[in-house]
Specification:
Blueprint lengths: L11 E5 L3 H12 L3 E6 L23 H6 L4 E4 L2 H10 L2 E4 L7 H7 L4 E6 L14 H8 L21 H19 L4 E6 H9 L3 H8 L13 E5 L2 E5 L4 H10 L14 H17 L3 H10 L4 E3 L10 H6 L2 E3 L6 E3 L4 E3 L36 E5 L4 H11 L3 E6 L25 H6 L4 E4 L5 H12 L3 E4 L3 H7 L3 H7 L4 E4 L16 H8 L19 H23 L3 E4 L2 H8 L1 H10 L16 E5 L12 E5 L3 H11 L13 H6 L1 H13 L3 H11 L3 E3 L10 H6 L2 E6 L3 E6 L3 E3 L18 H7 L4 H9 L10
Parallel strand pairs: 1-2, 1-4, 2-3, 4-5, 5-6, 13-14, 13-16, 14-15, 16-17, 17-18
Antiparallel strand pairs: 6-24, 7-8, 8-9, 10-11, 12-18, 19-20, 20-21, 22-23
Helix pairs in contact: 1-6, 5-7, 6-7, 6-19, 13-19, 18-20, 19-20
GO molecular function: transferase activity
Keywords: Transferase
Protein name: CoA transferase
Length: 780
């Protein structure tokens, strides 16, 4: 029996990139079956010599991360004639700085290509040539300080593990797939800063402009968060008032419950945190997790590179695979397609291994897919699911967001708008930011009549996306096989936290739990304290990878006419972004550890307090500085005026600077403390040093680079008024020029339109409304 053809089996991708973002983008395309040809300089991609732990790479060998990211690819040495031949025969070219070619020139010379450019700030605009690193981009995004992460008595902390590079690569893959499926011949201009904003912040500009206050002002440690049990670290989290009330009951303090004021849970949890931590310290992680699971309180062990592969759930699901060339453990793909049409990972190429190979002639392009002809049933809530479907809506798909008056989307309820405010459920900036261009249908699917209407709706939909826990759809009788019986070519995207099988299958999953279970939490925080949850990346990263899986399924259907089940477990997406931890431990026996704001790829790298008073009247103004090369170090010394301490010959190399990092930090801290953040940034950027202001996230729209690129668009909401909304982190040369065509829908706004389109009469619609099966306001 022959294996099914992968979705991208006839795509040719010219990989002209270096670094994690480009490598991960092309890995996702290679997993989908594309022939990815990596054009390298004679000395090879720098990733071949990279190890985050500093493990030595023997001559003629490759670093383990490269071997993971280059699975199934080919390698050629980039001689000019060969590159021209490759670009002529390719369908896609992925580019990042470091290549001698220019992406705009590639697009002009080879107009059939999708040319995907991955740069820190985008190809145009006043910041286009400014130096940056993943760390300084986190600062500019507002993601370092924006969700109040970290001990308020210390510097805020970045998310560890270069997560922004990985998600930039995933965004590049999604944009490349969408562009090529629309017909190709396009320049895709990805801004890593904008990708960081979508990854590390939660619509803060919209929040600020709609409600007149920031999403988070004071920094704090999330409570209960990560705590020390008898035998290790365990994480408990409360995303809703009910979960906090259940936690109170679990630890034996029901008197803490205040049902009259559910918005007080954050303050109350912080107040009682020492008592909760004492309760945790008296028990083992297994005891705590068993109790928390019984109370349906989100929980997880705090997983790291050493422990991930031995976790019972990952073992049961076969989450980790052996690298086909070098034998270390690596995560499997971030989604599972049923039927399995992904390409099994093949060995990474040696440098220039395929140089003599001739390229095949380019085939005729497929007709483009109109996303405007795509109908999507969006049975999702909160952040992860809606962010997946939102991208399709902004590309023109008809997306129908399904809610129930008894259970509206949870993001309608988390803005802190009290029920005494008129139409309070329509005033959530988070819901508004995630759901523009969608339609709203309310339907109580707990009733047989509601399920009957839902089945009629599914008949009309190309795609169904849901992010309930697995048992919910099963109990409704609407699993994949049931949907397939109604619509045989349907693409069904299921987004459970931990997958459709395995011992953690039915565990509650929120962003922070996914971060705990994947290693993202482990690498975030100061080394002398417990790690802290990023509290940001778990959801949008899951939605992004679900989108990539969905686009692969659409491509499969275009070629075969067949539907598909896409199992996009949130934790699988997170494990891919955190892949380096398991890879380094398996390949080298090295456990990567959190390092505060220091990092493996730059020295010095840290946050430094400035002389500014922050906008809230505090002393919490910081700049991020990251020196990634010896040339940047010399530029920093010049910008500082070459003080005597910089002349130490030990500091001329990265290893020496790393060894003397404390001393460098002391000098840079003193220098920055006497200057404003703007003065530091202007001086160091002019010298060519990567630097960033640690931005309050609601100030994103003030950045001139984002204004130039039109990253924010103004939208007029019928209840909450005008505000600016983030878009997509790419500019597509064939448009659309504007992403937000209409505001997020009011609850049940399109009930009549959609139900009449299914053939229901006005009398039948009125009966559904009188019976409470549909409605326009939350049920009391």
């Amino acid at each position: 029996m022959t294996s099914p053809e992968p979705p991208l089996g006839d795509w040719v991708v010219a990989d002209l990139s270096t670094g994690i973002a480009g490598a991960y983008c092309t890995k996702l395309l290679a997993d989908g079956g594309a022939q990815v040809v990596k054009a390298e300089a004679p000395e090879g991609d720098p990733l071949r010599r990279w190890s985050a732990s500093g493990a030595p790479i023997q001559p003629g060998r490759d670093g383990a991360l490269f071997s993971f990211l280059a699975c199934s690819k080919e390698s050629v040495v980039a001689e000019p004639d060969l590159v021209r031949e490759l670009l002529e025969s390719a369908d896609v070219a992925v580019w990042s700085p470091g290549s001698p070619l220019d992406p705009r020139e590639i697009h002009r010379t080879y107009p059939h290509l999708v040319v995907t450019s991955i740069t820190p700030f985008g190809l145009d605009g006043p910041w286009r040539d400014r130096p940056a690193t993943e760390f300084t981009l986190q600062a500019w995004s507002g993601g370092i300080i924006g969700l109040g992460r970290g001990d308020p008595e210390r510097a805020p902390v970045c998310v560890g593990g270069q997560a922004g590079d990985w998600t930039s690569g995933a965004y590049a893959a999604a944009a490349t797939l969408a562009s090529r499926m629309r017909g190709g011949g396009e320049l895709v201009d990805l801004s890593m800063l904008e990708a960081h904003i979508m990854t590390f912040t939660y619509h803060p500009v919209t929040f600020w402009e709609m409600l007149g206050r920031p999403w988070q002002q004071a920094r704090r440690l999330n409570m209960p968060g990560v705590a020390a049990a008898k035998d290790g670290l365990v994480a408990l989290g409360c995303a809703t008032a009910q979960q906090f009330f259940d936690l109170c009951a679990m630890v034996g303090h029901p008197e803490w419950i205040d049902e009259e004021n559910p918005f007080s849970i954050v303050a109350r949890a912080t107040e009682v945190a020492p008592v909760i931590q004492e309760w945790i310290a008296a028990r083992t992680t297994a005891e705590i997790r068993e109790l928390a699971t019984a109370f349906r309180i989100p929980n997880s062990p705090v997983v790291n590179g050493a422990s991930a592969a031995s976790m019972d759930h990952f073992d049961a699901r076969g989450t980790f695979l052996r690298n086909p060339r070098d034998g270390f453990l690596q995560p499997g793909p971030p989604y599972r397609l049923h039927p399995d049409v992904l390409r099994p990972p093949g060995p990474a190429p040696r440098l220039g291994e395929h140089t003599p190979k001739r390229r095949t002639a380019r085939r005729a392009a497929e007709p483009g897919l109109s996303f405007g002809g795509l109908r999507v049933l969006d049975m999702t809530a909160f952040w992860a699911g809606p962010s997946c479907t939102h991208a399709l809506a902004m590309l023109g798909a008809e997306v129908i967001h399904l809610e129930a008056t008894a259970r509206p989307d949870g993001t309608r309820l988390i803005a802190g708008v009290p029920p005494s405010v008129e139409q309070w459920w329509e005033r959530s900036p988070i819901f508004a930011g995630l759901n523009t261009d969608k339609k709203s249908l309310t339907l109580d699917v707990r009733t047989e009549r509601g399920r009957e209407v839902l089945r009629r709706l599914i008949e009309t939909c190309d795609v169904v996306v849901e992010n309930y826990t697995p048992r919910v759809l099963d109990q409704l009788g609407l699993d994949y096989e049931a949907i397939r019986a109604v619509r045989p070519d349907a693409i069904v995207v299921r987004m459970p936290g931990f997958g459709l099988d395995g011992p953690w299958r039915d565990n509650a999953a929120f962003a922070f739990v996914i971060e705990d279970a994947s290693g993202l939490t482990w690498l975030t925080g100061h080394p002398d304290q417990n790690p802290v949850e990023p509290y940001s990346i778990g959801d949008p990263n899951a939605g992004l990878h679900a989108l990539v899986g969905l686009l692969l399924a659409l491509q499969h259907r275009r070629r075969t006419g067949e539907g598909m089940l896409v199992e996009a477990a949130m934790v699988d997406a997170a494990l891919n972004v955190a892949a380096e931890q398991v890879i380094e431990h398996s390949a080298y026996g090295a456990l990567l550890e959190r390092a505060g704001n220091r990092g493996p790829s730059a020295a010095p790298q840290n946050l430094y307090r400035t002389a500014d008073t922050d906008e809230f009247g505090g002393n919490d103004s910081w700049v991020a500085i990251a020196v990634a090369t010896d040339e940047q170090w010399q530029a920093l010394c010049e910008a500082l005026g070459r003080p005597d301490w910089t002349t130490d010959p030990d500091l001329a190399t990265a290893a020496g600077r790393r060894a003397h990092h404390d001393t460098i930090d002391a000098h840079l801290s003193a220098w920055c403390a006497e200057r404003t953040a703007d003065t530091v940034v202007d001086g160091l950027w002019a010298a060519g040093v990567p630097v960033g202001k640690v931005l309050q996230p609601h100030r994103q729209a003030e950045l001139e680079q984002l204004r130039f690129r039109g990253f924010f668009e103004e939208v007029d909401h019928p209840v909450s008024g005008r505000a600016r909304y983030s878009t997509l982190p790419v500019r597509l040369s064939r448009g659309p020029e504007r992403h937000h065509v209409r505001p997020a829908p009011l609850l049940g706004e399109h009930n009549r339109e959609l139900l009449a389109g299914l053939g229901l009469s006005e009398r039948e619609i009125a009966a559904l409304e009188s019976d409470g099966i549909i409605g326009r306001a939350p049920a009391r």
